[in-house]
Amino acid sequence: MKLAIAAALAMSLAGCGDPPKLRVDEAVLVLSPVDSNPSALYFTVHGGTEDVKLLRVVSPSIIRSEIHESGKDPKTGAMTMAPLNNVPVAARSKVEFKRGGKHVMVWGVNLRARRLGEMETEYIFSNGDRILVDAVVQEADGTIPDERKKVT
Ligand SMILES: [Cu+2]
């Protein structure tokens, strides 16, 4: 009994000491209600042991993408968007790409991604890391893509 507790304690301590790993999760692509308009990709980046920058997000299922920052025009109060060249991700930090904040604008989401309801996305960082994540593809109202409804 004592041995089991000691072993469990040793394992949990080892878990705490693991260095954080740069990773991306909770990737969701929200399709534009108008097919000709860009869609938006949201996700969370978890920093590793060094400061890096997110440079680009690519996917075989899209034509192109841009990293954007949302804001508000101080004069008119209207929502605005400005492209970013990169996004710093400090070591051990968490950077969320979400509605009303940073996001990735995506053009030309192909039929395959819409039918599968998911697509592969690749996040390219300044340290050379390329992280692959399966993103969920959904309509703006959170439902599965219209093209998927036809095949399922
Ligand atoms: Cu945008």
Overall pLDDT, averaged? Answer: 91
Uncertain segments are: none
By secondary-structure content and strand pairing, the structural class works out as alpha+beta
Number of DSSP E strands: 10
- Going by CATH, the architecture would be Sandwich
Overall, the morphology is: globular
The CATH C-level class name: Mainly Beta
| Count of discrete domains | 1
CATH superfamily: PCu(A)C copper chaperone
Largest sheet: 10 strands, mixed
Termini Cα gap: 52 Å
Number of helices: 3
Q: Helix and strand succession?
A: HEEEEEEEEHEEH
Ligands in the model, by name, code or SMILES, are: copper (II) ion
Percent helix, as a range, is 10-25%
What CATH calls the topology is Immunoglobulin-like
C-alpha-based Rg, rounded = 19 Å
Strand content: 35-45%
Protein name: Copper chaperone PCu(A)C
Walk me through the topology:
Elements: H1 2-17, E1 23-30, E2 39-46, E3 52-58, E4 64-72, E5 79-84, E6 87-89, E7 94-97, E8 102-107, H2 111-116, E9 118-125, E10 130-138, H3 146-151
Parallel strand pairs: 1-10
Antiparallel strand pairs: 1-2, 2-7, 2-8, 3-6, 3-9, 4-5, 4-8, 9-10
The site of copper (II) ion (CU) has 4 residues, from strand 8.
